[in-house]
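thought: fold this chain, then report.
action: predict
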Amino acid sequence: MTRFLHRFAFAALLIFLAFGSPAWSASKPLTDFSLEELMDTEVLSATKKLQPLSRTPAAVFVISAEDIRRSGATTIPDLLRMVPGLQVAKLDANKWAVSARGFNGRFANKLLVMIDGRSIYSPLLSGVFWEMHHPILEDIERIEVIRGPGGSLWGANAVNGIINIITRHSAQTQGTLVSAVAGTQEYAAATLSHGLKWGELNHLRLHAQYIGHGESEAATHQPADDFYNLRTGLRLDRDLNIDTSLMVTGEVFQGKSGQTVVLPQISEPFSHQIDDNAEYSGGFLLARWKKQQLDGGEFRLQTYIDRTKYEDVIFDYRIHTYDVDFQHRFNYFNRHELTWGLGHRRTADRLNSTPLTTFVPSRLTYNLWSAFVQNHTTLVPDLLEITFGTKWEQSRTGTEWQPNLRLLYRPHPDHSLWAAVSRGVRQPSRAEMDVQFNLKFIPPEPGFTLPPFPIQVLVSGRSNLNAETLNAHEIGYRARWHENLFFDLAFFYNEYKHLIGGEAHDLIFIEDQDNPYYIQPAFSLGAVSARSHGVEVAGSWQAQPNWKLHLAYTYLRLDIRLPPSEQRVLIQFLDTEAPKHQISLRSSTNIAANYELDLWLRYVDALSNVAQDPSIEKISVSPYVTLDARLAWRHPRKNLELALVGQNLLNRRHAEFAGYDFFEVLTTEVPRRVYGKVTWRF
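observation:
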């Protein structure tokens, strides 16, 4: 780690020396987003109401539209790399692993992800198929990232955090936006968005996007991970009267993602690789009605339908989701505010068998009923506030309560201290309860006490699993030390119970005349526990009027604890890899009139693989340092922007995750790449 930290520190010093000269102070100031405005940034996802960041008793990071524009990122996961406390790894050209506070994997199951309040968390595998979700970056207003449990408001699966992607009001995107991207990895990407209005109360935005991307690189095989994604949709915002509004948004999409899958076979070499394409399509329609009250209260009703179809060699499914959510907030007795709500989600799926998976039953409809209440009290005006509440949920696995208690202490308008105790819950996925999965064939091993035949590992779900639980303890400090310096610090200590791993049972001999073999049955088991603790730091410094620095640091320690059991407990089901240290340093400079230079330096510590045996720590992915650079020219009047972006400039390529995910889809490496982008608004 020391060698890589030295490389990171040297590169960071170069950035400082290159742009730390006082001569830059005479250039155009960076006025897009001041640090004072950063403290006053309004956040919705932490308490289900808009409130300033300085008054939010939670670990929050906001990615603004300006951060998105100047990042050089072309996907949501790449943007999330700037957030402390998040672990982001690219598995191949179209798949990512994104988690908060550990347990990272392709389907990181303890992070709830939403777009405009619509969950994109898949109940099939408890995670996000990131390859299917490519919202238009220019239409995003901000991305709110909450680290820590949010189940008391958002319900199950918001265990280690929440990501809420919030798109712009269509009144803010009037006119036409055209953007195009071409580069060494992208075949081509093009976006068209047009906003219009009729009358003074109706605004509409229409959009269409195509992304075509080439294969990445790998040292072990020839990648086949190219992909394309095509989508079109709309957003309508209508003011029904002075205090009532309606928002309707919808989209349809389709795409194809390449991948290399390892398929098990009973004879030597007991597995073979195939190039496979995952084909997917779907769409959603969401409507939100909102009415403001004179006392600051609010009624909100939201409903959506979401349909997804996905087919590859591992999964073949259709999932339909219907969701309705009501919320009411009102004030009482001057210093008190109460928010309560009711919700219902109905999920219907059809899961066809594939060469690797079978679900029993293959069709299922299940309901989730919920209710929540949260009280906020100002104990001492402008000094001390307390928030407490809980959420009740009734689902397929039973009844769960998710309480939380939060305190906010503001000794000065520029300083705030907060502390929180929360309980989070993760519902078992459909796969963990109902799948039958042909995982692999293990070759005969020398010295085996039984006759040497291959072993087929068959994984089966268990329908009576309990929900995973988390008891989280957090404390944080947020301050604007100087008009040019913002600082945010969070500590956490988490205790997990009933984590779902696997339990290996006795071998079963199959007396096949041609190919005798054993079956190693393994069943889902919710008996693993874990503890984690960590530190997350975010800081912003307006070093010069035209130069801004953003620093993020993460320390994470995760300990897995297996239960005493007569059977062998497997934790391959758990995502146990996470870097202990991560550093991100971003520099944004206006180097001359209409010219911008952005540099992004990142260090990510090694991934430690403890999946096979938690007592033996093995380095599965080496640490790496990477540098991205963006040079852009903006036309002063015609809203035209030309940008040249280079990513992973320090290395030809590097790995970010182990050789394959749980489903034996081979990972690739992230190559150096360069692309150009044209953006024109008129």
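thought: worth noting. The two ends are 49 Å apart (CA to CA).
final: tokens above.
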